[in-house]
Amino acid sequence: MPRVTLRNGDRDFQVDVESGRVLVDGDESEAPRRALAVAVGEERWVFLDGEVHTFEVQRAGRRRSTSHHASLSAPMPATVRRVNVEAGARVAKGDTLLILEAMKMELPVRAPADAVVTAVSCRAGDLVQPGAPLVELE
Q1: Which of 54, 62, 93, 94 is deepest in the core (most CB within 10 A)?
Q2: What is the pLDDT of residues 77-104, one digit of tens each?
Q3: Residue 17 to residues 5, 11, 23, 26, 57, Cα–Cα distance (Å)
Q4: Is residue 138 within 8 Å of 69, Cβ to Cβ?
Q5: Where does residue 111 rank: exposed (0-12), middle (13-18), buried (19+ CB within 10 A)?
Q6: Where do the structural domains in the chain lie, given as residue ranges?
Q7: Which CATH architecture has domain 70-137?
C-alpha cells in the first residue's frame, strides 16, 4: 500500500491509499466522503467539506525550510472571485485571503500561518492557471 507523509502547518499525517480507500494515520473515515485533490509540485490542495486544505509532501532526507516566506498559488485553473487582503495587511492563520471559483465550487485560500501580506498578484475577475502566484506572505 503506497504511503506518503503530508504536512499541514506543524502536523504530519501518514496517508495510505489502497484500491480507492484512504487511511489517514491508520484510520478510515466512518462515512464515504468525496474530496477533490490537486497536486502542484510538492504541494497538495484538498477540497473537502467546503474547505481547502493545503499539504506539503515530506520526503526522506529533505530538510524543512526555515524561511517564513510563503507564496500561495492557484491549485487549478480558476477565476478569482474576491480578494480580501492588500499588501501590508497582517493576517492570522486560517484567515481567508481570497476566494477562487473552479468547477462551480468556491475555494477559499487561507493563510497557512500568522503573517504579513507582502504582495497580491491578482484581482477579482482574473482567470488564473495552476501555479500562478496569488499572494506573497512573510
Answers
A1: 54
A2: 999 999 999 999 999 988 999 999 988 8
A3: 12, 19, 6, 11, 14
A4: yes
A5: buried
A6: 3-58, 70-137
A7: Beta Barrel (2.40)
pLDDT tens string 45-72: 777 766 777 777 766 654 444 445 678 8
Query: What would the grid cell of residue 23 be?
Result: 487511511
> Residue 138 and residue 116: Cα distance in Å, rounded?
5
**DSSP letters of 41-70?**
TTEEEEEETTEEEEEEEE-TTPPPP----E
Cβ-contact 9, 68 below 8 angstroms: no
Q: Look at the block and give the residue holding cell 480558476.
A: 78
Selected residue with higher pLDDT from 13 and 116? 116
pTM over 0.85: no
* Neighbouring C-beta atoms of residue 18, cutoff 10 Å: 11
Question: Three cell numbers at 137?
Answer: 506572505
